[in-house]
């Protein structure tokens, strides 16, 4: 996260244009795994997406250990056995909004973002549908999509196959505001 943040700061300082860079003031990412034995849900409120409205570039780095679960044992299993958070501490998405958006005009815009999603050290090309809402100086981004965990090299031991779904639903809702040099 520090490297992405420093890259954005350098970009902002070199261009001198501050209003084109937006950073999340709040962000909520959830994932949900439905299975016959037990549903698994987690929430992460630590991620800070960054958006450059002049280019449509968007980036987000997600600390895997920041996902919180209802049961502490689920969180422990997630970090140790599946996400292997010590070895793969972050998930990263870098992409670009495909549609042209008038960032000065309030409204709701259906979008697609094409980029690379890296989870568990495995990078995959993705195109993700979402919504961008502009209201005043705030931009809200939201999306819902599925991740096939095997695509990212996440293995589920045969003993737990009925506990964890092959596809996990991910939702992201974030409100961004113009980056202000302090």
Outline the structure in words.
- The protein is mainly β.
- It has one domain: Lipid/polyisoprenoid-binding, YceI-like (Lipocalin), CATH 2.40.128.
- It is built from two helices and ten strands.
- The protein has an eight-stranded antiparallel beta barrel with strand order 1-3-4-6-7-8-9-10.
- A hairpin with a 2-residue loop joins strand 7 (107-119) and strand 8.
- The chain is elongated.
Give the CATH topology.
Answer: Lipocalin
Domain tally: 1
In terms of per-residue confidence, which ranges show pLDDT below 50 for 5 or more consecutive residues? Answer: 10-18
Work out the helicity level. 10-25%
Q: Can you lay out the helices and strands and say which pair or pack?
A:
Blueprint: H1 2-15, E1 21-33, E2 40-44, E3 50-52, E4 57-63, E5 68-69, H2 72-82, E6 90-97, E7 107-119, E8 122-135, E9 138-148, E10 167-178
Antiparallel strand pairs: 1-2, 1-3, 1-10, 2-5, 3-4, 4-6, 6-7, 7-8, 8-9, 9-10
Characteristics:
single chain, 182 residues, mainly beta, Lipocalin, 8-stranded antiparallel beta barrel, 10 strands
In short, what is this structure?
With 182 residues, this protein is mainly beta.
């Amino acid at each position: 996260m520090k490297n992405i943040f420093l890259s954005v700061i350098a970009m902002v300082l070199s261009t001198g244009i501050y209003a084109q860079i937006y950073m999340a003031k709040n962000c909520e990412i959830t994932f949900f795994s439905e299975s016959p034995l037990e549903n698994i849900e987690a929430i992460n409120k630590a991620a800070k997406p960054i958006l450059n409205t002049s280019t449509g570039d968007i980036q987000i780095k997600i600390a895997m250990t920041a996902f919180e679960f209802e049961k502490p044992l689920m969180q422990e299993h997630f970090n140790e056995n599946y996400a292997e958070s010590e070895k793969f501490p972050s998930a990263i998405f870098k992409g670009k909004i495909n549609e042209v958006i008038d960032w000065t005009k309030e409204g709701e815009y259906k979008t697609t973002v094409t980029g690379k999603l890296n989870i568990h050290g495995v990078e995959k090309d993705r195109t993700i549908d979402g919504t961008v809402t502009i209201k005043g100086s705030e931009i809200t981004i939201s999306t819902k999509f599925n991740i096939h965990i095997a695509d990212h090299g996440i293995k589920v031991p045969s003993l737990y196959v009925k506990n964890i779904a092959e596809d996990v639903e991910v939702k992201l809702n974030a409100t961004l505001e113009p980056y202000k040099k302090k």
